[in-house]
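Look at one such:
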Amino acid sequence: KDIAKKYNIEIKNNLAMLNVSIIKKSNNKSVTANINITVKNLLGQIKKISTLAITENDFTSYVFISPISNQETLIYSLQVSPEEKYIKKIQYQKKFYTD
C-alpha cells in the first residue's frame, strides 16, 4: 500500500496489475528494458493499459494496470528488450475474479 500511495496507484477490485522486472542472471540485479505490451480478453477486445516505471533502491519495476470484469481472462503479450540488446516475446494469461 505504501508504494501504491507513493506512486498514486489506485487500488480497486476492478483493476488488475501486472508487475514486470528484468533481472540479469550474472549479477542478480535489475536492468532497464523497453517493454511493448498488448492486453486482450478472450473475445479479442483490447484493454486500455496504464503504464508506470518504478525505481526503488536501484531496482526497476514496470507496472501495467488494466480494468477487469469478474471472471474475465486477460492475455498479456509482451515484447521485452532488456538494455536494448535483443527482443524476447512473452505471453501470460490470467483469469481474474472481482467478487
User: Anything to note?
Assistant: The mean pLDDT is 93.
